[in-house]
Amino acid sequence: MELIDQHAKKIMEGCKERALAAGLKFQNESLEYIVTNRDLLELTPKYMIPTLYDYWVHDVELLKEKGRYELYPSNPYETVINTRPAISFYNDNNPDWLNVMIFYHVLAHIDFFQNNLFFRHTWDYDFTGQALSDKRLIAKLRSEKGRWVDYVIEFTRGIDNIVGFYNELSALNAPPKTDISKKLDYYFDVFLQQNKRLNISEYINEINRYNDCVKQYGAKGEKHFFSEISGKHPEFDAIFEKSLDKKINTRPDLIQYLIEHSEFLNKEENKWMISVMEVVRNTSIFFQPQIRTKIMNEGWASYWHEILFLQDDRINGHEVDFARVNAKVTSMPRVGLNPYALGMRLFYFIKDMVDKGKYSVEYKKLLDQGKRDKYDSGNGNGRDFIFKIRENFSDFMFINTFVDQDFVTSNDLFVAGRRINKKKMVWEYYVKSRQAEDYREMLFSKLYHPPRIEIDEEKSKRNFLYLVHHFEGKPLVKEYISNTMLGIEYLKGGPVKLETSEVSVTAPPKEGEEPEIKWERILYTMEKRKLTRRKL
Question: What pTM does this model have?
Answer without folding.
Answer: 0.80
